User: What shape does this take?
Amino acid sequence: MDPLPPITPEALTQALQAEFQQLCQQVTDAVNRAPTGHVIPHSEEPVRDLLGDFRRKVFQAALQLRIDAAEAAFSPAGRGHRPPPGEQGA
Assistant: This one.
């Protein structure tokens, strides 16, 4: 099996930009909803859950980018493909 091609941090950043913006909105909502004096006990668990979901999305996106790069580089003819004898030298 051929190794998957590497991805760049820029590609991952671009792929997750919308999800990151949504995460930031959800975290600020959770923190802002918490009553004064009780911010940590009322927001820590929801924020932890949001970050757990985002961690999963980051990992899935990174893997998908590598798979997509490998598929884009895939040649349907395979390695070492030679044209049929009638097409050689044409």
In short: The mean pLDDT is 88.
